[in-house]
Amino acid sequence: MAHAFKLDYLPFEDYLAGEREVEVRSEYVDGQVYAMAGGSELHNTVAATFHGLIENALPDECRTWQSDMKVVGKNAGKHFAYYPDIMASCEANKGDDPYVRDNPSLIVEVLSPSTQRTDLKEKFDNYITIPTLLEYVVVSQDTPYVRLFRRRNHWQSESYFADDTFALESVGLEITVKQIYRRVKKEVGLEVRR
């Protein structure tokens, strides 16, 4: 999701408490709060389709969330909180706050032109400090292209295109890139327009 505007400094605990009662969700990075803009139809369709594939593959003891569950952590002593497009975990929530997770095994972000820099740099740098995270997936919304970063590969990028198949080891799913884009074939160039 795109950041709409930056708000003033706020202590992390105040952010978490206040976020439950706001109409506009915000993300948090080291005292700065960023209100979030909504995603496009294309963004939401790609995210929802991918979420469904992950949800259907998960064992019963695992859970997945789409864009309304916060992930929180700390990088170099600085708190962060984001709303990933998709997040999954097979562990019980460590904290007692049912609105946040600090132990995902998988995080997925769907890129748009306005979020690409944040998702590939700031969020990447923060997400990989989460001890339980095994995989971070970045999905293009405009073209059939997936980048997969794995802890076991020291977070090196793996690239997958329309006809490729890849495995999400964290949730036991093997998937083709085309499956993620099955509802938006025309928009991403997988179907010739007539």
From TrEMBL:
Database matches in CDD domains: DUF820-like
Keywords linked to the UniProt accession: Endonuclease, Hydrolase, Nuclease
InterPro entries per the UniProt record, alphabetical: Nuclease_put_TT1808, Restrct_endonuc-II-like, Uma2
Chain ranges of the Putative restriction endonuclease domain: 12-176
Entry annotated with the keyword Ligase: no
Residues annotated as signal peptide: none
Taxonomy, superkingdom: Bacteria
UniProt keyword annotation of Protein biosynthesis present: no
SUPFAM superfamilies tied to this protein: Restriction endonuclease-like (SSF52980)
GO function term, MF aspect, one: endonuclease activity
Record's protein name: Uma2 family endonuclease
Lineage of source species: Bacteria, Pseudomonadati, Pseudomonadota, Gammaproteobacteria, Thiotrichales
